[in-house]
Structure formats: structure tokens, C-alpha cells
Amino acid sequence: MKEKFVGTWRLTDYEYRRSDGERLWPFGQSPVGVIVYTGEGFMSVQIMDSERPIFVGGNRWSATLAEMAAAFESYLAYFGSYEVNCGEGCVTHHIQGSLFPEYTGTDQIRYFEFEGDRLTLRTPPLPAGDQTITGRLVWERATV
User: Fold this and answer.
1) Mean of pLDDT over the chain
2) CB under 8 Å to 5, separation ≥6 — which residues?
């Protein structure tokens, strides 16, 4: 099953669903992203809001704290190794480095489904205040 993951995938949809049924789009309704799985067991993912604003000063060195916070909130990135558990229908990302410091050194479990050239990854339910949220990311195999 691991060989089905190998390659580059482009993000086509990313949403969270709260336990009360409300849908949320953490990176807007037109996010862009790429996830790469290698045959050697390495993975990397980057996702961003396609409408993130540029820094008024033109570069990160002159960005305000508010601009930096907005940039941080509109981007997700991490890398590490991965392993596939067919019996449980999940892939575990063993995170070695991340934009979010609390992810570094953790394992992130994603439940998977393949349909043609599409890969859907779902998070386990995650605590969100008095509810839970579940992420659903749909990826399409990238072609040049």
C-alpha cells in the first residue's frame, strides 16, 4: 500500500467539520498545497491560504508583528518520515520539523482513502473548546 502514496499530490480541498456539523475552512475556500511522499519513507507538506496578504514593506524584515502573525496563521508546513498501517487505514507522519513548534517530535495520524488519482486524508477528532473538529484534506496526484 505504501507505493500508492509515493509521489507529489496537490491540494484540492481542505475543511474542518465541527462536532455540531459546522464546516470551517482554515486556509480559505481556495487553499493551495503540496504533499510529497518518497519511496524511502520521507514526507513533506505545505499548505497556504491562496489569498494571504503580502507584507506592506515588501519583505519579512520590515513586516509588522500583525503581518507576521497573519502570515503564520495562513500557512502550515511540516516534514518527517511516514509509515502506512493498512489494517487501521491510516498513515502516520513522524514529524521532525514544523512551522508549529508543538508538532515537532510528534506523530500525526491521518486516515486515508484512495479513489482514482485522489487521496483523502482525515484527522482523528481533535479537541476544539467544548467540541471536536475533524479535518478532511483532498489531494490529487500532481502531473507536470
Assistant:
1) 93
2) 37, 82, 84, 91, 112, 119
